[in-house]
Amino acid sequence: MARQLFTPPITNPRFDPNQSIRESYKNTTSSMQFQPILHEDQSGDEKSSCDIDEKSACSETPDGTKSPTLTKQEIDDALNGVSNLPPELSRLIDIFIDDLKQPKYVRPLSVLQLSSLFQSFYIKFDKASFQHVSSMTNNGNYSTNGSPSSFLAAKETLSSGLSGIFARSRSSSGNSIMRPRRSSSLFSNESTSNSNNVTQMLSPEEIKRQLRINELNNMRIEKYMEFCERDVFKKILIVGTSVSSPNKLKNFKTHQLQTFKVGNLFRNSTEFTEYNKLLNDKILCLSKLSIMNKINLIKFLSLNKGIDPEPKFEEIKEILFEFTYHSISPCEKIKALLKLHEIMTYSQEMSNDDYLSLLIYYIITIVPRDIFLNAEFIRLFRYKKKLVETESFALTNLEAALVFVEGLTKNDFSNEMQDKLTESEGKILECSISSKVALPSNNGVMHKTNGNGSGNMGEIVTPTIQRPDVTRSNSYDGFRTVFDSSLKNIIGKIRSYTPPHPNAVGGNTVHNSNSNSNNNNNNNNNLNIPRSSSQLSIELINRDTLEISRDVSTSSSSQSSASLERGNREFTGDLTVGANASVNSIEKKELQKSWKKYKGYKFEDLTICELKDLFEIYQKMVQ
Amino acid sequence: MNTSVTSIKLVLLGEAAVGKSSIVLRFVSNDFAENKEPTIGAAFLTQRVTINEHTVKFEIWDTAGQERFASLAPMYYRNAQAALVVYDVTKPQSFIKARHWVKELHEQASKDIIIALVGNKIDMLQEDGERKVAREEGEKLAEENGLLFFETSAKTGENVNNVFLGIGEKIPLKNAEEQNNANNERESNNQRVDLNAINNGASANSGCSC
C-alpha cells in the first residue's frame, strides 16, 4: 500500500477521520515527515507523567478541527466521581494482601521476590480493571452524551476493523483472562438484521463518540491503577509488615499510620538495608563537611554556571521530604520525584549535567533519610508498565546521583580537605559503598556491581526473579519449593487488618503444618508465643532498632527458627516438656533392657515367676 | 495501514559542551515549539517522526558529559535502542572521547544498539573556526564500527533531522502481524522495541516490555 496517512493512528486521541479520508486519497509526496504533536497548555501543576494519557487527550488537531478527544471539562466530569476503587476491584487488593500473609513460605521472601509478586498482581489488577470498565461501559453506565447503551453493541459489527483496534487499544496483556472484546457481532442487538452481510459504517460522529468512551475508559483504568498502588500500600501500612501483639494497632497514633517505612519491605534483603545505612552515613558525613565548609559543594559540582541552588532550597526540601517520608505508594513517590525535577528546571535548555549536579547537591545538603530505599522501592514496586518515559528517566537520575554519592571517596577531594578529616569521617569516605556491599541486581543493571564477583555478602540471591503468577491459586504445592512456607518475617506475618483474632498465630501454625514445612515451630504449637512477634514488634516501637530484627531475621531460616525455638522455651520456662521427655526415655531404656533379659531362654525352662515377669513386660510394652 | 507507534529510547553521549542538548533541542523544537509532551528540560525529550508507514517516537535521554559522571552512563544507556555519540569538529579531544564511547557501547550496551556518530558545530568552520577533526576521520571510525555518520550544526539545524531519520530507518520495526500480537501484550499504541528481549525474560513473560 503506497498511500501514507499523516493523521495520528486511530487509537490516538487526536485521530481525525475526516483528515484521514482526505489524506488517504492524496498523492504521496514524501515518505517521511515530522509529525507535529500539538497539545493544549497544561493547567496548574498537573505535570506529572502519571497522566500522560490525560494530557495527550487534551489536544486539538493541527488544522483546528475539533478532534474526537476530550475536553478538560469532560475528563473532570468523568474522573472526579472516581475517588475510590469499586468494591469488586478493592476486593482484589484484600485478597492479595490476605494471600501475602498466608504462611506458605518457609523462607522469608527477599524484596526482589516480593516485588515480583506485586508486579504480577498489578498485571492481574490491570486486566480486572479493564474488564470492570468494559462491562460498565457495555451496561451503559458510562456512556457519554446520553448515547443509548445499545450503541456499542449495535455499531461494533466491524469486528475485524475498528472494534478490533478499539479492543486492542487498551490491552496490557490478556493471556489468562479473556477480555470481552467488543467485536462480537454475535451478541449485537442488530446482528440478526445484518445477516445479509450489509456492514453498517460508523459515521465520523460515532467514531468520535467511540474514541471518547475508549479514552475515558483508559483514563479510568489509569486512575484505578493509581488507586490500586495507593490502597495496597495503605493497607500494608495499616496491617503492618510485622507481627506485634494484635492489639497494638489500637495504640497507633495518627501520624504513625501516615508514615510508611519503606525499609520494612527490605528487611529480608540485608544487602539493601546495609547499603542504605552506609549511604545514609555517607550523605550525612558529606553534609556535615559541607556545613563546616570543609568542602565547597557548589564548586565541587561545578554548579556555579549561572545556577544558584539556594533560592529553591526550601521548596526542594519540602518535596524531598514528601518523597521520602510523607508519601506511601510508589506512584505518589514518583510524582514527587517528577515534581522535584520540575522545580529544579531553571530553564527548558537545562542539560542533564545540570540536573544531576543539582540533584546531588540537594541530596547532600538536605539529607533525606533512606532515600536509597525509597528509590529502590519505586523501581521494584511501581507498576512496571507505567514506569516509563519521564518516570523512568527521573528515577534513573536519582539512582545515578546516589551511585555518584556512594562512590565518593576522600580522594575525590583536595589534599587540603583530606587533611582536615576526622578519623570517623576518613573512615566513611575511605571507599565506595559498592565495594563493601554488592547489591543483588535486577536483570543485572542499575548499580555498579562489585568487581569481586563473590562480594562480601556471600551468597546473594540470583537475579532471576521467579514469577509465581502462573498458578498462584490456593494450592501451595507449586511454590512450596520455591518460596517455601512462611512469609513470617515479612508480609507473611502481616497482622490481619480484619480485627485480629487472639489465636491468629495458632491459625498460622496450623497452616504451617499443612504445608509440611520444615519449620520447627510446628512442634510447639501449644507455646503461645508467636515466634517472630517479639522480634518484630520491637521495630514498630523504635525504627532505629531495625538492625536488631534484621540481624535475627537474616540468619538462615532454619537456624533462626531453631534458635528462636530455644529462645521461646527458655522464655516460657517450660521445662516440663524436657522433663517428661527425659523420664520417658529412661523408662524406654529400662524396658528394652528387661525384654532382652530372656533372650537366650527356652519356654520349657521358664519358671512361673519368670513367666509372670514376662507378662509384666508385655503389659508395659502394650502400654 | 499500519498505525502503530514504536517507542525508541535514544541516549546522547559525548563530552561536555559538544552540543548534545542543542542537537536535540533543535530536533525537537525545529518546527514544533508547541510540543507539550512531558519533558524534563533538555534532559528528557520526546519527538515523533513518521517514517514510511511507521510512527517512531524518540525518547531522548541526555547524559551528563562531565568526566566525573562518565561512570554513570551505563545506567542511562541500559536498554537503549539507539545512541548518538556526539563530538565537536573543532575539538580533537572530544573525538577521542567519542571513540571511547563507541567502544564502551559495543562492549556494554544492548547488542543491536544503533549508533550514530555525529560531528557537531560545522557552522563554526565558516566563522573562522578551524576544523580539528577531519570528516574522513569520522567516516573511518563509523565505517570500522558500523555506525551511522553525520556532521551537523545544531546552530543552523543543518543535517540534524537526518540524524534521527537515519536512526529511525535502521530501527528494526516489527511487521504488522507481530505488532498486532504485541498490541495484545501492551497498552495502547505505544510499543517499544526490546533489543534485550532475551535478557529481559521476566518482563517479557509478564507481557510488558517496558
From TrEMBL, chain A:
Superkingdom of source: Eukaryota
InterPro entries according to UniProt: VPS9, VPS9_dom_sf
Comp. bias intervals (Basic and acidic residues): 38-57
Coiled coil: none
Bias kind Polar residues: ranges: 17-34, 58-69
Domain VPS9: 273-414
Composition skew (Low complexity), residue ranges: 183-197, 512-528
Annotated region (Disordered), positions in chain: 1-69, 169-199, 498-530
Protein known as: VPS9 domain-containing protein
Originating organism: Saccharomyces eubayanus (Yeast)
Source species taxonomy: Eukaryota, Fungi, Dikarya, Ascomycota, Saccharomycotina
Gene name linked to the record: U6500P02150
From TrEMBL, chain B:
Single GO MF descriptor: GTP binding
Keywords carried by this UniProt record: Nucleotide-binding
InterPro entries cross-referenced by the UniProt entry: P-loop_NTPase (IPR027417), Small_GTP-bd (IPR005225), Small_GTPase (IPR001806)
Region (Disordered): 179-198
Name recorded for this polypeptide: Vacuolar protein sorting-associated protein 21
Originating species: Saccharomyces pastorianus (Lager yeast)
